[in-house]
Write a structure and sequence with these properties.
Layout lengths: L8 H26 L6 H21 L8 H23 L11 H18 L8 H25 L6 H30 L5
Helix pairs in contact: 1-2, 1-6, 2-3, 3-4, 4-5, 5-6
């Protein structure tokens, strides 16, 4: 009898955090590389984070799901499509704001969760719809953390070294927040395996 490997929320959190940090590094690299092309920053942010987080999560999911490599593509599509739509809408309306993409991230997380549910989890797991909610909640918490980082900017407070340290800590907390919440969700979903 072949036993399935157990799922660890801690490993999922660590892998998601590493993916988030790698995504931020990839974002910095791609932004510098593609700056002359004047591409949409939102899509670069989305692609960078989706690719790296998706790959790290895939490393764990490949032991639990058939066709797990699709996780990465669905993650990228779920993030980039809403951000491209937002960028198109903003250009159409001639509206520009550095922070307008933040509210779209939880909407994108719903889309990510739905795509992953519909095309990967639904056929393999009972109770897979839960994943959509956990995906949304994980990214919603990350957006709330990000908004706390930006609060001094919104309030036009002076930026000092403590603000920069606070921002670094808050940024680092986004990865674990996403990882813990979605890890609990994935553990819940994987308990309902059909095969």
């Amino acid at each position: 009898m072949v036993t399935q490997p157990s799922f660890s929320v801690l490993r999922w959190t660590v892998f998601t955090t590493i993916g988030f940090i790698a995504g931020v590094a990839l974002l910095v690299f791609l932004s510098a590389l593609l700056e002359p092309l004047k591409l949409d920053d939102y899509s670069i942010i989305g692609f960078s984070l989706a690719l790296t987080i998706g790959l790290m999560q895939w490393l764990l999911l490949r032991k639990h799901l058939k066709n797990a490599l699709n996780w990465v593509g669905l993650y990228i599509a779920g993030v980039v499509i809403p951000l491209l739509l937002l960028a198109g809408l903003l250009k159409l309306l001639s509206f520009r704001s550095e922070f307008i993409f933040l509210p779209i991230i939880p909407v994108g997380a719903l889309f990510i969760g739905y795509l992953q549910y519909r095309f990967l989890l639904k056929g393999n797991l009972n109770h897979a719809k839960r994943w959509i909610i956990y995906s949304f909640l994980g990214w919603l918490v990350a957006v709330i953390i990000t908004l706390t980082m930006l609060l001094p900017v919104f309030l036009h407070l002076p930026i000092n070294k403590y603000f920069k340290i606070f921002n670094l800590v808050a940024l680092i907390l986004c990865g674990p927040a996403i990882g813990i919440i979605t890890g609990i969700g994935m553990a819940s979903v994987l308990k309902g395996k059909k095969f």
